[in-house]
Amino acid sequence: MARPHQALLSRTQIADVALALIDREGRFTIPRLADELGVHPSSLYHHVSGRAEIVELIRDRVADSITNDRPKPTAWADYVADWIRGYRAAFAAHPHVITLLTSQTVVADHTIAMYENVALVLEDAGFASDVLPVISILESYAWGAALDLVAPEIAWTPDLPRGTPLARAIANAPIGRERADAAFEIGLALLVTGLQERLRHRQA
Amino acid sequence: MARPHQALLSRTQIADVALALIDREGRFTIPRLADELGVHPSSLYHHVSGRAEIVELIRDRVADSITNDRPKPTAWADYVADWIRGYRAAFAAHPHVITLLTSQTVVADHTIAMYENVALVLEDAGFASDVLPVISILESYAWGAALDLVAPEIAWTPDLPRGTPLARAIANAPIGRERADAAFEIGLALLVTGLQERLRHRQA
DNA sequence: ACCTGAACACCGTTCAAGT
DNA sequence: ACCTGAACACCGTTCAAGT
What we know:
The structure is a homodimer. Chain A is mostly helical. The first copy, chain A, has 2 domains: about 50 residues, Arc Repressor Mutant, subunit A (Orthogonal Bundle), CATH 1.10.10; about 140 residues, Orthogonal Bundle (Tetracycline Repressor, domain 2), CATH 1.10.357.10. The first copy, chain A, is flat and about 70 Å long. The N and C termini of chain A lie far apart (about 75 Å). The mean pLDDT of chain A is about 90. Chains A and B meet through helix 5, helix 6, helix 7, helix 8 and helix 9 of A and helix 5, helix 6, helix 7, helix 8 and helix 9 of B. Chain A binds a DNA duplex through loops.
């Protein structure tokens, strides 16, 4: 074929199809992706520098999907909770992407706007020198909760004893996605409560 | 050479050297591992079923290194905090292993004893139907905090504006490992505070 | 500028051959 | 039972050739 009059590929399209492939099959390879795009593997290298860059395109796409409203001056706790909810939800929409993103160190993160918004809200709330740690903590929790979505259930372990504390704990909780969602919300509430208490002591 | 009188390899040795390789080079391949063991790649398959099983051996090793003391009837909050500290510390000792473990779904988890201990402590503390969610939440946080250890610093982003909330937040915090450790401890304290409050309301 | 097709290095795994 | 060495399928990447 050689060069077509109209380019057959684009970076957005590559990212689109790669993401769809991951959602469908849990992973992607260059040959598989090329096939899906109706093109030869080597063609991709005219648009991206390599596999790593495709992963970064996907990372950007997921990051961009985190809703990031302009902060309102009231209710910092609600703002922060919504941020982390959206953070986790962005991953939850593409569970297999999570492990892909953790396996490759990020190259650059241009989601500064998001951090600025959160930093502003926390600063206004009075967290002062705690602002960066608090952002870290919330992000760690969101990542961990996202990983929880693809982790195996403790409940699935076959050789569970009967009548133990763990057995009772499992019997008292839902399983699967419902369990993960419920746990996430409780944990988020714990963190917010903790933040409110910490702020109270800071200001006292 | 053919079969030696004394086996040249063992599963423990394979796991040992693989872990050392990951710590040193950030990753491991079968040829590289075989080379390090002074053996041909195909020899490994007489001891393990494949690469995936080697990863699981490493997972077990890290999991076993999580200190898991017998619970004492007093101070559930201290027990829980120590558990999560040890959980994260086990990963922190081998940072590159974290991404390896998240990239492969676990096959079986035989660390039931650990969960039983924590479940017992939480049950005695009065968490009742919250026991499993609380375990989930704490583990999520430990995983997220472990990932934070290998994540890039927000602070490293080159194009940071001056005089913004984020810039001030970064200026007010340490960087690197020290930042991660400090943030982890604060977040753990937030969670414990949240748990204490939640217990108070449950019992009221 | 952009697609092709051949080529290369590398990886995980299998298996018959040897003791 | 356990190591070897050849072999295979597959993957990521390069590059000269074509338009």
